[in-house]
Amino acid sequence: MSGLEAVIGIETHVELRTRSKMFCGCAVAFGAKPNVNTCPVCLGLPGALPVPNEEAIESILRIGAALGCDIVERSVFHRKSYFYPDLPKNYQISQYDLPLCVGGHLDVVVDGETVRVGITRVHMEEDTGKSLHAGDGGRIHAADHTLLDFNRSGVPLVEIVTEPDLRTAEQARSYAAELQRIVRTLSVSDARLEEGSMRFDANVSVRRPGAGFGTRTEVKNMNSLRSLQRAVGYEIDRQIALVAAGGTVVQETRHWNEATATTLAMRSKEESEDYRYFQEPDLVPLEVDAAWRQRVVDSLPELPAMRRHRYVATGVNAATVSSLVNDDALGDLFDAAVAAGADARTVANWLTGEVVAYLRQEDVTLADTDLTAADLADLAAMLADGAVSASAAKDVLRGVLAGEGRPRAVAGARDLLQISDTGLLETEVDAVLAAHPDELARIRHGDAKPFGYLVGQVMRATGGKADPKLVSELLRRRTAG
Q: If DSSP codes are grouped into helix, strand and coil, which group holds residue 310?
């Protein structure tokens, strides 16, 4: 054993879902042709002046409030100076010592343990352009040439910085996944990692438990939750092995290579003084009064943790609850079905079982199907009333998903309705008992073993359509004499 533990902090960048950019009126649109959504402001041309996007500021306040942060009364923008080809102004408008939101937290559950991750700050900045390195692997060192696309330049970007409270790669992934759920619930971003609208940088160091912080590295280029977990795990192992061998961790920025599952050194890590922060002279301070702060708090929707707690209270098991919370469409349909009178556990199991399986098999979304909350409520009532069996209900559900009609019509068309006619079933029970006098005699002498056999015979005689509960009840009456 190395005796070392990891110390991990996450910096998350979230591109906001606004119609226009942070400081100009250019459109925010993923996948547009290069350099079509640009203007003198986002290209950093001389004399162009920025104007703040109110919707973007409102969005960051919502994120901060959802994370339990304090929303400050006064905040200012700063210039963060550095020199990259995709940053035409040679500075980025950001925030430094007076961010909009400070001091929140996010609780995540990992292996049954709740981990509280402190939120240092949530602040606003503008995104940079995008460098496209043409050549083997898309890396600059192997590129034949580099192309610059400034469509992303100036897109509203929120940075969410944690305290160094994470200790494992699994905790890092769980934090990132929960933060993604919150951002999507707030509808401030689509938070698609594969499109870069949500990006994670991980700061990783190792130390003896209880000792001061070790030298950290910053890991970039993780475009999925799986990549984040693998990259952090690799970097922890790399640093532990390096220290155990008598080496020294170098403070640097490292690139995660998905193909080789390794991190590679990119450049030495900058400190805050390297950016030469100073207050942005072209923007006035932001004043967030008490009424604005209260309006933001009041506008928050039910957050994932709240929804998770509410679902558990209905009796749904934890694994099923997670599936419902992770998919807004499933969760919303579940809520509507329960409100319509459906049993919570039954509907939850259908949605996370048969419905999800159908959607994957057919490669469609829930919106592509005809399934409604009323359908689920009707089907649950049919099951409770004995109109269909549990297995038949699943067949009916698949029929509804396939567009065959409403539940009762599908059940009829597929010949799945159970026989619940007491008179008809009494006739079938009497016939079975008459054909099996030995079994009847054994039951009446206290041997219960033949009972299940007789139930099966009635079910067989009715083609499996009899209500098994009613069959059992009728048999008990007939065999009790």
A: helix
Q: What whole-number distance in Å separates Cα of residue 236 and Cα of residue 466?
A: 61
305, 310, 316, 321: CA torsion to nearest 10: -20
Place of tokens 């026989």: 419
Q: What is the pTM of this model?
A: 0.82
Does 84 score more than 60 pLDDT?
yes
Q: In what order do the strands lie in the sheet with 70-71?
A: 70-71, 101-110, 113-126, 156-162, 5-15, 198-207, 217-222, 252-257, 262-268
Cα distances from 159 to residues 223, 369, 401, in angstroms, run 16, 37, 41
Domains defined for the chain, CATH in brackets: 5-296 (no CATH), 302-413 (no CATH), 422-479 (1.10.10.410)
pLDDT digits (tens, 9 = 90+) for 237-248: 999 999 999 999
Rg (CA), the chain: 30
Say what angle helices 225-244 and 169-186 make with each other, to 10 degrees: 150
Structure tokens at 84: 């990259």
Contact 217/202 with Cβ under 8 angstroms?
no
Enter the tokens of residue 123.
């602040």
Q: Which comes out higher in pLDDT, residue 445 or 54? A: 54
Beta carbons of 121 and 161 less than 8 angstroms apart: yes
List C-alpha distances in Å: 133 to 195, 319, 444. Answer: 17, 43, 85
Q: CA–CA separation, 298 vs 440, rounded Å?
A: 68
Label residue 269 by pLDDT band (50, 70, 90).
low
Tens of pLDDT, residues 402-411? 999 999 999 8
> Residue 1 — very low, low, confident or very high, per pLDDT cuts 50/70/90?
very low
Per DSSP bridges, beta strands 252-257 and 217-222 are: parallel
Strands in 275-325 per DSSP E? 278-279, 286-287
Statement: residue 300 has pLDDT above 50: yes
